[in-house]
Structure formats: C-alpha cells, structure tokens
Give the backbone structure.
Amino acid sequence: MRRFDLLEQVKKQNPLVHNITNIVVAGDSADGLLAIGASPIMASAAEEVAEMAAASDVLVINIGTLDAELVRAMKQAGKAANEAETPVVLDPVGVGATRFRRKVVAELLEEVKFTAIRGNAGEMAVLADIAWQGKGVDAGSGDADQVEIARQVAKKYRTIAVLSGASDVISDGDQFAKITNGSKLLPRITGSGCLLSAVCGAFIAVSPTDAAYLACLEACASYAVASEFAEEKLGSANLPGSFRPVFLDALANWSKEAVQERVMLEERSHPE
Amino acid sequence: MRRFDLLEQVKKQNPLVHNITNIVVAGDSADGLLAIGASPIMASAAEEVAEMAAASDVLVINIGTLDAELVRAMKQAGKAANEAETPVVLDPVGVGATRFRRKVVAELLEEVKFTAIRGNAGEMAVLADIAWQGKGVDAGSGDADQVEIARQVAKKYRTIAVLSGASDVISDGDQFAKITNGSKLLPRITGSGCLLSAVCGAFIAVSPTDAAYLACLEACASYAVASEFAEEKLGSANLPGSFRPVFLDALANWSKEAVQERVMLEERSHPE
Amino acid sequence: MRRFDLLEQVKKQNPLVHNITNIVVAGDSADGLLAIGASPIMASAAEEVAEMAAASDVLVINIGTLDAELVRAMKQAGKAANEAETPVVLDPVGVGATRFRRKVVAELLEEVKFTAIRGNAGEMAVLADIAWQGKGVDAGSGDADQVEIARQVAKKYRTIAVLSGASDVISDGDQFAKITNGSKLLPRITGSGCLLSAVCGAFIAVSPTDAAYLACLEACASYAVASEFAEEKLGSANLPGSFRPVFLDALANWSKEAVQERVMLEERSHPE
C-alpha cells in the first residue's frame, strides 16, 4: 500500500515554492501553500526571477493572466531553474482559450523542461493535440479517454502529466494512477486547480528527483481527501463561500492515516 | 410583477464572462461569478484580449488598477467585443480620484460602446459631470439627486446606468427603477461593487440584446436580496470578515421566489 | 498608561490609505483596512500615483511583487508624498531574497523619506546590514538581538522601525517598545505582515506628525490583541482558513478597553 507520507515531509521541510502566477489566485495559492506547511514566494520581475528560481526548492509557472513581460520572466525563471536542477511545474491555465496562450505554452514547453504539468481535461487535450471542446478556463467535455490524454502529454513532453477533475489521472507515460476522491465543491472555488499545481510542486520539492510521479500521486490523493473532509464539515453541498476557509483548515490538518483510509486509487500500466 | 428569473438562466447557461479587472478584486470577482453559476475568465494581455472578448458572452472592463498597457488592452478588447456584438460593461472605479482615470474613462467611452455602466454615486456623478464630493474609491456625498445622475449617464452615453449604493438606481434614460434592498455589510467588503458589475454582465449575457435594462434591474435586486440573507444568517451587523463567505453562499443559493418576495422596487418614468 | 485610542480615531476619520502593493495581498489588505474603518485605495500607474499619493492621508509602499514599471511608480509616488507631507510607510517584503529587491529598496530609501518601515526580523536585518539567515519572504532566524536590529534601522534611516514577529519591537532609535501579544495563527495567513504595515499607515494618518512612534506602537498592540481574540473565538490553534474571516471580524470590533486590558508591553530607552 502507498504510504502517503509526503504530506508530513512538506510540514517538516517547509519547501520554498516560487510561484510565477496570476492576479486571480496569487493570494489563495499562497494561503493554501502556507496551510500545508510550505513556504510560498511570488516573484515575477525579469530582474529577479532567475535568482529566485535557482534558490527555491521548486518553481511553479501558471499562465492564468499573462502579458509579454511576464512571459519573458517565465522563460528566464524556467531556464534558470533547469540549470540549477530546481524542478519546474507548469499549469497551462486556459491554454485552449486563445492563440496567444497556445503560442506561449508551446514556447515554454520548447525552452523549459518541466518535471510535471497539471491541467484539466480541456487544457491537457490541447497539449496532447487531441480534439476536445473547452470553454474559457473550464474543463469542457469530449469523447477522448482522459487516461489516454494524460499518457500522450507525459510521453510527448517527457513529464509527469496530472489531469485533474472529477477524477484525477497521473501518468508518467508508462504507468498511470486514477484517483476518484474529491468534493464537488472544489471546482466551485476559483483556483482550486492552480493550488493543486502548487501542492504538486511542494510534494515534488521534498521528493527524490526520480520520484515526481509518486509525489504528484500523493499530492492529488491528499488534496482530494482533504476536500472531502471539508465538504463533510459543512454538511451541505452548495456552500462554496464557506468551503474555501474550511478547505484550508482541512489542508492544514490532513494526515497520512486519513489519506490511506480514504483514498480510492487505481494503479495500472498503460497498455502498449 | 417582475419575474426575476434571469438568475436561473445564468445557472442554466453558465455564460462566459471575460473580465479585464484589477489586482484587488480579481479573485473575489471570480469566486462570485462561480457562485452564481457563471464561468469567469480573466485575461488582459494585449495579444489575446480581442480574441477572448469576441469569444465570450460578455466583457466587463474594470479600471480599479491601471497601467498604460492595460488601458491599451481594454480598448482593444472593447472594440473587438463591439464588432462581435458581445455586450460590454464598464466599472469606472474611482474615476474621480485622478486626472489619469478621468482621461482613461473618457477615452474608453469615446472608443467603445457600453451596454451598461455601473458605479457608485461619486463615480457616476463624474461621468454625468455633476458636482459631487468623492474620496478615493468611496461614493462620497453630494446634494444631487441620484436618479438624475443615473438618467444623465444613461442619456449621455446611450447606455444602461446602474448607480449602486444604499439604494440602487437603474436607468435607461427614459425609465428608472429604484431598489432599496441590501445589507449594510456590502460596502464593508472590498469589491462588492466590482462584483455587482460582473453580475450585471452575467445577467446581460443571458438576456436578449434589447433587454439590458431589465437584466441590470434583476441583477441588482437579486444581489441586494442575497446580501440581506447573508446578513440575517450572521445575525449581527458588524462581522465583515464572516460576511464574505456567507454572502458567496447566499449568491449560490438565491432563488427567484426569494427575490420576488423580498424586493423593494419602485419603477417609474423619468419626468420630461 | 497608554490610552490606545487611535483605533477610534481611525474609525472616526476614515483616513484614505494609498497602497502600492502586490498581487498577492492587495485584496486582503483592502479588506483589512475597510474592517478597521480606513478607506483603502490601490493605484500604481505611473500616470496617477503622484496625484493619488498627494491627495491621500498616507502612502504605503509594499515591494511584494515588483517589476521595473512598478518601481518607477513607487519612486514617483514616494517623492510626491514627501513634497505634499503625506507620510509614507515602507514594507520591504523579502528584501533579502534577491539582489534586485535589495537594490530597489536601497534606491527607495535613498530617494524617499519614510515615516516608518515595517518588516520581519530577516527583512529588517538586511536593512540594518546585520547577519541573519532568511528564506524567501519568511523571517528566518539569527542570533542578533531584535531590539538592536530595530534600533539600527531607526537610526540609519531616521524612521520608526517596526520589527514584527512572535514579539513586535518598535523603535525610534532612542526608545523602544516590545509587545509580546499575538496569535500564532497570524503568520499562517498570507499578508498578515503586509496588512500590519497598512494598519500602521492608517494609525500614522490620524496622528500628529511627531507621533508616528506612538502610532506604530498602538497599531501593533491593537493588531496583536485582535488576533488573540480571533484565535480564542476559534477555540483551536490550527484553523488558518477560518482564522482569516474571524480576524477581520475582530479588527472591525476592536476596542481601546480590550487593548488596554490585554496588552503586554515593555517600554524602555535604548542603552547608549
């Protein structure tokens, strides 16, 4: 059985998580990282991102709100992180929404090596070049198999693909895990996906270099189980406003025992 | 009697609301839009706003925090929305506070056709060129009649004017509605006006082109009634911190029946 | 005994607090300022900051997320505030984290006269040029005496130094105060230090020019006592998500009587 003890490592090691992120979720992502015991820093000036990324335990690049200057900073930071062997996580928010986002993400994937990429089904389908119907930053819907989308992203970019949604799929291209936990209130709060990307980053930061797949698996499982605790605390399905603070409380109090007991996990090899 | 059923349309249609907004309220506006069932997207890069605005169901431009680059993006997005017949809402945050804001808003009003403009009394008085004493982004105070201010804005800019405050006035230049609902805690949370602008946008997005007046009326009534439910839930008048999550809960659970029952609405023609 | 009545002055006078701040805490700082009865405005366009700063009751400059354009705006605003005799507060967020931040802060300190500077031990040690081990935006740890760090900052920059943490030290270079109140949940929410800087600004804004030391002392004491009330309301030590709204409630309901009764304050002259 999986041990799910990385959440304790994050609390012990307080990894420094450098976020280049958007104006929508910056505060909430920082709150979430603090809740799990990580040490968030947001910095996006071209003059400092390389130094910051190299000094951090992980870099998380989120394209939620972009401008040309920020894109330059993302590339500088990503390259500096690669040189310093700081792992880098990509969150391609709404990549299918505009040609600009697709271009920026293509350039980032060309110039920077990402340890993991986390997106919803619609975003990951764009990266895998698989037909899908997205809308704005929402997941949208499509016929393609989510496991196949994750596998394609993992193989194409030699990365850990984390496709999150009603169920989460984590793939390294050879094997995959599917986690079916999670509160239906999660997508009702802004930036729950963005925060999961940052949490994956924190788990990767406290893992050995070759264990990013496991780190993402544990991050997704711990996060989804915490969201269920929060929903149960509320005792109601439609209180998205109250869900946010209670979910942060749950993240601050998660335990490996709870994850071990609750997780609904399927682990398989991808078919040849 | 008004039916107040647009709130149900928003839940059914999940309109895509493109916001070009400020760093203060971006997250909270997104949370509020999610709560009512709309689909928020924030994008402000000059490279993508035109495409995004044209593909969205409504564009909401908020000048809360500006820079020259963002102003360029606002103009591009507004023009693209006009061409695509995407309705556009303006929130002229603190327009009276600096010459720069007055200049930017004048240019936006010159170059972009707005379906609706929502501001507090001080902001709308500046647009109507009526004397008023504002301070920063607050409404301030003055002797002018708020109905007259709204009428002037509506006529001058051929738009729906939404003047919100202790009471809300909605005018299309010929007729007006006055709504006297609303919690006194609303102005105690940052961005409650900004969110109302976005909610007006969501209601306009699910309405026929010629029904923006009614959409704004219903948006203001539904929003104000929801704030009263939230205040009653708290059972106390001075808990602004707890008010935010509870208000989001109320927005997620509003019903046309509650609005029909609670609304205090006066509808009249403007005197000649 | 200290009277601690400035919190009432803030409620009466609603000082206009101009913040040039970062994307992480902008919303939360505005909420906190609203809670205490101040009137926040965020503006950072080079085209307007000078006018805004001169018209405000205090300017608070926070370097949490920077870019070159924002740095120019900070300098313009700071100089305009100095000319207009608007007090200016500096929050040197993460100043030790990168060379760029150190350079920006050095330039700001060269070009702008600050009434007060608030930072954690690590940030203030960088300003005082005293050895300290920081990490990202966290306080870090070191052997140096915090009172000595505060004294050095106060003397070197002829300012009121506010070093906040598990205990707060306020120094004017000659005398200092040490406050040992405060909830351990405060550092668990993003931007609690940034908000304290803004609160110091609001207290300075309603004080005589020569009373900034007392204003900062009262701000720190009131803030720390409010955080204790919030923690007691929760009845638990590890609910950072629920702490934020409850702390805002406590800020909205603080009283001089509570501060007088609760404050643990040591006031002394610095040794020669």
